[in-house]
Amino acid sequence: MIEQTLTVSELRNNTAWLVSQQKPACEGCNGKCGSQVFSKLFGTHKKAFPIPLTEPLQVGQKVKLALDDSQVVQHALWVYLLPLVMAFIGMFSALLLFSLSEGGQIASAAAFAFLGFLIAKKKGQSLKHDVKVIKIYPISLPVTQIDGD
To answer: What total of structural domains would you count in the chain?
Structure first.
């Protein structure tokens, strides 16, 4: 199981919208590696994740969710492997069946890869994630230190 703690950002029509905390890509190199650079360039957009409300929640409340990791492997196979396999099928069929030149093989591979992408996208929309709410954390009050304590 993959677990993640998210924060309720919005409540709308019996749906809670959750956002995750931004984590740095790594802290080992103080921002000099490629992961940190790409994180700074493209990591500012936060995506909200909707879940149906089963218990009352408040904005700012933390929720721990779990995802079955066997589903993640299945999704990865569809999204990453299918377009690649389709590109090879397109390239080899253009070469062996139609005896096309290199440009024709490249165009056929690109067309088949795009077709594989469309099939993977359609299949990915039909696959459902089995996300479970593990724990709902209560909203805590901020504690301030009083001088002299």
So the answer is: 2
Same-domain pairing of 62 and 2 = yes
Q: How many CB atoms lie within 10 A of CB 134?
A: 12
Write out the H or E segment, with its range, that includes residue 7.
Answer: strand 2-12
Q: What's the chain's length in residues?
A: 149
Band of the pLDDT at 68, cuts 50, 70, 90?
A: confident
How many CB atoms within 10 Å of residue 35? 14
**Domain check: are 44 and 78 in the same one?**
no
Q: Are residues 125 and 111 in the same domain?
A: yes
Residue-wise burial string across 63-87, b where 16 or more C-beta atoms lie within 10 A, e elsewhere: bebeeeeeeeeeeeebeeebbeebb
Q: What residue has token string 């996208």?
A: 121
Is residue 110 a contact partner of residue 88, using CB atoms and an 8 Å limit? no
* Domain containing residue 96: 69-129
Mean pLDDT for 93-101 is 94
In 3D space, the residue among 139, 134, 135 whose CA is nearest the CA of residue 60 turns out to be 139
Q: Is the pLDDT of residue 91 over 80?
A: yes
**Across residues 29-50, what is the average pLDDT?**
67
